Amino acid sequence: MAGHVTAKVKRSLKALAVVILVGGAALFAARPFVPFTPFGGGDDRLSGPPPLYMDLEGEAKVTAITLADLSDSEIEDRARRPVETIVQVRSGEKLTELLGRAGVASAEATQAIDALITLFDPRQLKAGQKVTVTHAPAPHGFGRGEFSKVSLATDPIRDVFARRTDKGGFKADQTTRPVSKQVAHYSGSIKSSLYESAMAAGVPVQVIINMIKALSYDVDFQRDIQQGDSFEVMFEGWYDTKGKLVRPGDILFAGLDLSGSEIQLYRYEDSLGATDYFNAKGESVKKALLKTPVDGAKITSGFGMRNHPILGYSKMHKGIDFGVPPGTPIQAAGDGSVEMAGPNGAYGNYVRLRHGNGFATAYAHMSRIAQGVHTGRRVMQGQIIGFVGSTGRSTGPHLHYEVLQGNNQVNPMSIKVPTGVKLAGKDLDRFQGHKRQTDLMMAQIPSATHMAVSALAKMGPKKN
Ligand SMILES: [Zn+2]
């Protein structure tokens, strides 16, 4: 039934583009308030104002439809629905400013924030965070009514909101989502890069980043990964009742099969409570030097230097190159001290680190050297020492990386660097027990699924 939406109004709305979230609430009229007069002259070509900064996380598709496509009952339905706008916090932006940007009058914004402050400190707002601003439905199914609610997630399981009360003021409240700890298992073959293939398999991005970090001692993400290699990862996470991951936890296992050579990382907590990753033999995966001294996640096929003439080490080249976007942070491959930092001819902006084990490493063509990296300073493994650029004699942004033994460049792909802790005796026995448990868990959880920790405990190993 058309109710008070007349055919004339409907005609004047023809071609009014409305952006909706598939399966979600209508989102429109979300630009800082634009007066809309439905009974006015009726510009048939008027397009609906798009919502502010909607971040859809790839979960929903935006579809443009016209009101002319809608039945009368659908239009009436819209007239009953509140209008939600998802606004992303800009860098340094205060909640009042954000609300202003969403078209909320400052007096109302102040009221809402004063209520919210009892549950949430607005100074904790982070750039990129999403805030949902709700307006009451407007008559006739388009535009929007008065500002009615602001809500945001303070962490993956808690939402706080301030809602307009019947008396006119705002009142704050919160909801928490029930979550359960589960263990998830994914595996797949690598088509382009580990990052892209793990993403395609559905591994959460934070887990991929942590996995790449843990593997960076053993894997040269530029050269070691070939098409057809495979990966496997098992991690803990907190899942909501719909089975959606709300917070990833620790990686319990990460493995790579690189053309038949296997790399396996088991997370293990020793008897003193310290955790580290160990290979199947109980050797810490930490090594004196990282094999990939940049964020391996940035080495994707799009940036891979597949066509670079001098990827590898040669007598002419004396180093290896990592193709990553300009500005990518460069990490110290190992603990050491800065032997040189500054412009160095064809090397451009250059840093050389001396490590305690007879090795030195050098990093060239940086766009800039990180603050505090000066000759004589100590650096820690993984510390950011500069940023990828194309200074000196360079054809494009990349990291030129050298390993020196004494003062001679050596092939980083073939050196044996000192390794970390090797478990022995009772520690090794304890680790082997843990490893068996981890392997069993992986066998019990089918790939691309997750399972409650309690269910796994019940399945457990059979006791005689
Ligand atoms: Zn080079």
TrEMBL record:
Protein name: Peptidase M23
Statement: the UniProt record of this protein carries the keyword Metal-binding: yes
Keywords assigned by UniProt, alphabetized: Hydrolase, Membrane, Metal-binding, Metalloprotease, Protease, Transmembrane, Transmembrane helix, Zinc
Molecular functions per Gene Ontology: metal ion binding; metalloendopeptidase activity
Keyword DNA-binding: no
Superkingdom to which the source organism belongs: Bacteria
Entry-linked InterPro entries: Cell_wall_metabolism_enzyme, Dup_hybrid_motif, M23ase_b-sheet_dom
Transmembrane residue ranges: 12-30
SUPFAM superfamilies hit by this protein: Duplicated hybrid motif
Cofactor(s) needed: Zn(2+)
A Gene Ontology BP annotation from the UniProt entry: proteolysis
Domain (M23ase beta-sheet core) ranges: 315-412
